[in-house]
Amino acid sequence: MDYLLNVNWNKITPCLVLLVLEVVLDFSECASQAEVNKHLELGRDFLARGQLSDALTHYHAAVEGDPNNYLTYFKRGTVYYALGKAKFALQDFTKVLELKPDFTAARLHRANVYVKLAKYYDAKEDYLQVTYSEPYNEDAVSQYHAMDGLAEELRLAEAYYRGGDQRAAADLATSLLETSPWAAQLRQLRAECYIAMNDLFSAVSDIRSVNRLQQDSTDGYYRLATLLYQLGHVSDALKEIRECLKLDPEHKKCFPFYKKVRQVDKLVSTCEQASEARQYARCVDSASKLLKIEDEVTLVVFEANRWLCSCHAKEEQHAAAVAACGAALALQRDARVLCDRGDALLGLEMYDDAIQSYKQALELEEGLQRAKDGLSRAQKLQKQAEQRDYYKILGVKRSASKQEIIKAYRKAAQKWHPDNYHGDDKKLAEKKFIDVAAAKEVLTDPEKRAQFDAGTDPLDPEAQRQHGFQHASPFHHFQHGSPFQFKFHFN
Question: Which entry of 11, 121, 185, 441 is 20 to 30 Å from 421 by CA?
């Protein structure tokens, strides 16, 4: 005890502190290594089950716990490679070779990544280094000799494109992409070829791939948005241009284009919603505004005229509908537009033209039921026009309400009633009055009116037999002798 009292604690304290710190650090290092090993084990288990994302999470943690372990980087790099994340796989394999330059497996993996990126000369150099370490590695030797041929094909594809032979350039690019699917420059080259050949759908597919491979490319999103807009895919174009603005809210190309596309998309949506709600005047108004905003991009102009065609026809503005349908069809042949045109032509009683319009729709879409129904109706109405038209007799529209029909009937009946008629041709008055009464009977009866609108006269016995109707006409007693043996009184 006296000995402890005589110890110089001022001198010994620093030594004790260092000793404690060393013990703590050794313990922490053991604990840290144990955690790293645990993450590596879990990563291996997830990898064996094909759960790559989960495996990647644990390999991330292992790398953070032991940043100087080349095997940890290699394992993470192989997961990146399996996920198609070329940029990160390349970084990890390069890090491995910095830590252990003679690790042949990592060099071979990096060479394979270079091939998929179409970096053929870099790949060739790595394959060469592998052959130095493993002269009998057949895969490395074979790939080494293949690189010059692939590099020459890439140079030739670029030369074809510069020379204006887009088809040859696209074909070569397609062949190279089988070997180098992660090569953004190859997909970009092929996309430019497709655009030059006016194959915009194929170009869109390639530019989408370029954006996924490159990421964070405002120019890529802008290009994709403009292509989609040219294809008339306005809502899709709006999504892509928004991705551009997420990266750069004041992008000098994306921002003004976004404002225009947003306005166009809103008007197209309004046309659709108004048509579904049967607000056809509102639909026409929105389509007209759309044409003022966009008068150059063919498929957007087509969309505006398509809505004008459809909504004018449903509004029974038949002449305006025919004009709008014609404008749309001049830009693109479309079966539904042809049907709308047929409907409008029927409204104008241009039966031959309507029949042709429905037939053209069926040539484009053989099974389109609307065109089949329209053709049948047009043929019946054409035949019906040769007989009597109850709407014409009363002077009402086909969309007239029952009240409007009754009102028109009363007016016509008063005019042609034999007791009121003061003209010389009593026979004419009798015939007109029969027609007026027949029109009222058909058009105020929902079932008979539906038959007539479908092209069958419910008061024509022959037509009834052809369509299997057995109902006797309420005017059958008019067929023999004079029907005027009673007197009408009008309020």
Answer: 441
